[in-house]
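wait is this the right file?? whatever heres the structure
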C-alpha cells in the first residue's frame, strides 16, 4: 500500500513537470518580453529616422549630389552616390555617425535578398519558439530574447518598408540603414542599434548558459 502511494506521488510530480513544460508563458513573462522588445525596437527605428533625417538636411547636399552625378561617366546608382558623399559627423570616444546602407546582414556580408529575408524570418521564429517552449524563463533570459527579437524586427522593417531618398535620385529600398561608425577604433563595419541589440541578446544568452541552474531539493518520498 505504501509503495502504491509512493508511485502515485511520483506520477503526480511527473505530470506536473510535463504540464509545466507544455504550459504557455505566464502573463508576467509575456509582459517582460513585450516591454523589452517594444522599447528596443522603438529605440532602433527612432534612431535611424532621426540620424538619417539630420543627414538629409545637410546644407548644400543637393549641389554635392549634382556634382557627383556630373563627374560620373555613367549614371551612378543612388547607393553609389551615397557612398561618395561620405557623410559623417564625429561623436567622440572614437565613434562617429556615418550615413550608410547595407544590402546584406551583419559584418557587411552581402547575401542574396531571399537568403537575408529567410535568415531574418528564421531568427524571429526561433525567438518565438524559445519564448513559448519554456514559460519558466527568468527576466534575464526574457530580456535577452526580447532584444534579439527587436534587433531582427528592426532590420527586417528596413528591408521591407524603409527607403532613403537622396535629392534628385531614385530612393534606396531594400537596404538596412546603418550609422554607427567605429572605424577609428579599428572596427571596419558600420552598424545600427538593431545590431547592438542582437549582439547583446546573444551574449546574455551565452552568459546564462554558462551559469549553472540551482535546482530545488526533491522532497523525500
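ok assuming it is, sequence goes like this
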Amino acid at each position: 500500500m505504501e509503495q502504491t502511494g509512493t508511485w502515485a506521488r511520483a506520477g503526480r510530480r511527473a505530470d506536473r513537470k510535463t504540464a509545466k513544460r507544455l504550459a504557455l508563458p505566464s502573463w508576467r513573462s509575456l509582459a517582460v518580453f513585450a516591454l523589452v522588445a517594444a522599447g528596443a525596437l522603438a529605440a532602433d527605428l527612432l534612431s535611424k529616422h532621426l540620424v538619417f533625417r539630420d543627414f538629409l538636411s545637410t546644407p548644400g547636399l543637393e549641389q554635392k549630389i549634382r556634382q557627383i552625378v556630373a563627374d560620373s561617366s555613367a549614371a551612378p546608382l543612388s547607393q553609389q552616390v551615397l557612398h561618395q558623399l561620405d557623410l559623417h559627423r564625429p561623436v567622440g570616444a572614437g565613434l562617429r555617425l556615418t550615413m550608410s546602407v547595407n544590402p546584406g546582414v551583419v559584418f557587411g556580408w552581402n547575401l542574396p535578398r531571399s537568403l537575408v529575408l529567410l535568415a531574418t524570418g528564421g531568427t524571429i521564429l526561433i525567438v518565438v519558439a524559445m519564448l513559448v517552449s519554456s514559460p519558466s524563463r527568468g527576466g534575464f533570459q526574457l530580456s535577452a530574447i526580447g532584444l534579439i527579437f527587436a534587433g531582427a524586427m528592426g532590420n527586417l522593417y528596413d528591408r521591407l518598408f524603409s527607403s532613403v531618398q537622396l535629392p534628385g535620385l531614385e530612393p534606396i529600398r531594400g537596404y538596412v540603414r546603418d550609422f554607427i561608425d567605429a572605424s577609428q577604433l579599428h572596427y571596419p563595419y558600420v552598424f545600427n542599434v538593431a545590431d547592438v541589440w542582437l549582439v547583446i541578446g546573444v551574449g546574455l544568452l551565452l552568459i546564462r548558459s554558462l551559469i549553472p541552474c540551482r535546482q530545488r531539493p526533491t522532497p523525500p518520498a
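The chain has a mean pLDDT of 82. so i think its the right one actually
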